[in-house]
Amino acid sequence: MTATEPTVLATSGGHRVGGRTWLTFDALVHHAVELSGVHGRRPRVMYVGTAIGDAEHFAARMSEAARVAGFDLTPLRLFPMPNFDDIEAAVLEQDVVWVMGGSVANLLAVWRVHGLDAILRRAWRARVVLSGVSAGSICWFQGGTTDSFGPELRPLTDGLGFLPYGNGVHYDTDPGRRPLVHRLVAEGTLPLSHCTDDGVGLVYRDTELVETVSETPGKGAYVVRREGDRAVEERVEPRLLPAPRH
């Protein structure tokens, strides 16, 4: 793989409505490919839709978006059975893994049944760029806030833990997310947490947050830390990514 270090791009974005297509890849997906450093051939992107039950209609829309973007897209399906004899070999052939949002609790359970958690850790160390949106962001962290269990947001604390932080997604559009992150950090349920408005991404090299980026002007990233018995939030201004040409 061509990324210089183990890399994660954790986001609250990446997709938008297309012109001729139902879905198109926005700047964050293109940035994941850029982080891989691939050149001289079509980028290889694996789409993982476990969090929405491997919905075939959405995989088809992702494949169409990839065609428009000039990427070779490979869906990884675990329902009703894995679509590869050797999942690890398929993952390690990729430049980027992009994980769709949905139920992060269900995603983690199914991944662990199939050993995909360990495979993804090895892929991360092999410099396949790990990326995704919402559930596909939270999964890489210690935990975060989720509606996996019902409409009322609840904490999730058994993420993969590749990144030793909490993660808050949809920070500006779901009004329950910010106060719950603050409460969980203040009481020590979540560690220091990194959060994103919709359209914002967090770039990690190994486990260090090295940059925040955005596909939408005016959006922010946030660091929430515990001070005494309260949570303190710091806004981080992301770099605005160029709009994709497609």
Unreliable stretches? none
Cα shape: globular
Output the radius of gyration: 17 Å
Cα separation of the termini: 25 Å
Account of the 3D structure:
The chain has about 250 residues and is an alpha/beta fold. About 25% of the residues lie in helices and about 30% in strands. The chain is built from seven helices and 16 strands. The strands form three sheets. An eight-stranded mixed beta sheet has the order 5-4-6-7-1-12-13-16, with helices on both faces. Strands 9-8-10-11-14-15 form a six-stranded mixed beta sheet. It starts with 6 loop residues before the first strand and ends in a 6-residue tail after the last strand.
Describe this structure in a few short sentences.
By secondary structure, this protein is an alpha/beta fold.
Question: Can you tag this structure with a few keywords?
Answer:
7 helices; 29% strand; alpha/beta; six-stranded mixed β-sheet; globular; eight-stranded mixed β-sheet; 246 residues
